[in-house]
Every structure is written in C-alpha cells, then in structure tokens.
Amino acid sequence: MPKLLLAGAFHPDTADLLASRRDVEVTTLLEPTEQQLIDAIPGFDGLVLRTTLFGAAACARADRLQLISRHGVGYDNIDVAAATAHGLPVAVVGEANSNAVCEHAFMLMLAVVKDALPLDRAVRTADYARRNAMTAGEVADKTILIVGFGRIGTRMARRCAAFDMQVIVADPFVPRRVIQGLGYAYVEDFRDALDRADIVSLHLPGSHDGSPVMGGQEFSRMKKGAVLINTARGTLLDEDALHHALVNGPLAGAGLDVTRYEPPAKDLALLQLDNVLFSPHIAGVTREAFRAMGLRAVQNCLDAFDGKLDTYYLINPEVLERENG
Questions:
Q1: Which of 1, 77, 78, 303 has most Cβ atoms within 10 angstroms of its Cβ?
Q2: Burial 175-213 (b: 16+ CB within 10 A, else e)
Q3: What distance in Å separates the CA atoms of residue 308 and residue 295, rounded to the nearest whole number?
C-alpha cells in the first residue's frame, strides 16, 4: 500500500478525495519544520508539500519517494537540482491558481492607478478635500508592459486588452509571431520597452541566484509617472533601487504582493511609502484557488501511484525520461 505524506494544511475537499482511495495510507504533518520533514520522509511514496523547505538532506533520506508534489506553481522551497540528482520528480499544480494571481495583479494595478488606498483613508478621516488633488488616473488607452507570457501573463494581457489598454509583451521564449498574432506588441528584452510603458507587470520566475532583474538602471529608463506591479517573486526587484525610484522618480506607485524577505523586516524603507500598496504574498491563495491547488497536488501523487502521472505538471520531466530510457 503506497504511503502519502501531507506536509501542511490543505483544503477540506482533499480529504474527500483521499477518502475514496482506501488503497493509500495518508499521514499529515501540520507545517513541519525542515528537520521534522527530513526525519519523517523515509518510507513514504508520495509527498504533498506546502511551504516547508525540502533540500538535499531530505532528498537523501527519501528512500521510497515517487513524487514531490508542490502545492502551488512556485518551487523555491525545493532543491530541484538535488531532487533531480536523486531521481525524484517534482510536480506543481499547473493553472490551478493562474486566474487568482492574474486577478490580483489586475486589482493591484487598478488600486494603485485609482489611488484606492489613500482615498479610502481620506473618507475615514473626513478629508474630502482629497477630491481636488486629482491623484486618481485611468488605465484605458495606457500602455502596459507584461514581462513573462506564461499561464498568468497571457491572462493578464487578455484582461488589459479588454480594458482598452495597449499591450506590450516581453518573453524571449515565446515566438514573436505568437504574440503579434494575438494582437500584442512584442519585445524580446523587456528593457527595450520600459520607456514606453505606463505600467509594468512582472510574471516571471526568479533567477536561480536570487539576483534582481530590475535595478537602478531599469527603473531609470521607465516613464515618469509609471506604475510597477509585482505578483511574481520579490527577488526580481532591487528594493533599495525601487524605493529610490518611488521617492525621487520616475515611478508614481507600485503594487507588491511579494518582497525579497517574507514577512519583510519592519525597517524596510518601502513600508513607509504611501504610494506602495502591499499584500502578503496572497495573490494565488483565493478560496477557489486553494481548493484547486490542494486537489491537483494530491491528484498528482495519486496519479504517480497509478503509473499515469501527467508530465505537464513536472518541473524536471527528464527524471522520468531517464528512468524510461
């Protein structure tokens, strides 16, 4: 009988799914530490993982593991290189939370452009003179640069086009003809369009070494009054350079669901700015997405047990190819 370890708290509907599989033995550890997971992993055939780190030491102890199934689309907490070296497939949940992240990015964009948070504060303090400040803007006829054209970036482009925005897409891995065929402008390097974009929205993974893709040089090339939205990874931004760009120009505002360190240090300078709207890395965690991610993450393990795992969800499909070869 295969043994499945759930590392974290999951949507209640995952329990219903597992109840239908009496041939699978299930154990749950609620938010285990890295060491607790290392100690527990021997003897398990499948792992559904939320936020606990799973590094080389855990890989070395995984004597029976057939799959590491990540509850999400990011996998920063998994040492994929070590997993691959140990022959351990790593799966994610595909599009389970793509709509959630896209909608959150769109919400942040509108909230920043419309000056939503300061206006809310104005009402709560009876500051109706704020109406005359003319700080709210519109997104119609504005140009947005979408950096990364994957599951989330493609959805963001459609929504922005529907709001009468001009869309530029930067993704060197997507052919120009595909992007232009959808009616969007194309640039291979996003830096080449920074001076044209009223809004920049990031939808790409972080670099392996944690180095930012946007620093002082990139911010200096942006349009005066531009807005930055980041629902991807906090490591994409040089936060000191971002602070400088928000205080001294050219940026007018930013919407950030992610920071380099989470939660951020209390003395993070960005936290003191009124033109930054934060959320606690929650873009992909709506009620609907939490359910979908849980079901998909568990189903990935069940499919692995049944010998029918869909390689679409794998981060390192070469592991299976190597086994089958």
A1: 78
A2: eeeebeebebbbbeebbebbeebbbbbbbbebeeeeebb
A3: 16
The two three-digit tokens of residue 285, written as one number: 């965690």
Kindly report the backbone phi and psi dihedral angles of residue 315, in degrees, each rounded to the nearest multiple of 5, phi listed first.
-85, -35
On average, the pLDDT of the chain sits at: 96
pLDDT digit string (tens) for 119-129?
Answer: 999 999 999 99
Q: What is the DSSP letter of 48?
A: E
Write the pLDDT tens digit of every residue in 192-221: 999 999 999 999 988 878 899 999 999 999
- Which pTM does this prediction carry? 0.91
Position 321 pLDDT exceeds 80: no
* 52 within 8 A of 34, measured Cβ to Cβ: yes
Residue whose token pair is 């930012």 = 212
**Mean of pLDDT values over 92-120:** 97
| Token duo for residue 115 | 């000056």
The count of other CB atoms within 10 Å of the CB of residue 325 is: 6
Q: Which residues are catalytic?
A: 233, 262, 281
How far apart are the C-alpha atoms of 111 and 267, rounded to whole Å? 24
Residue with tokens 């052919």: 175
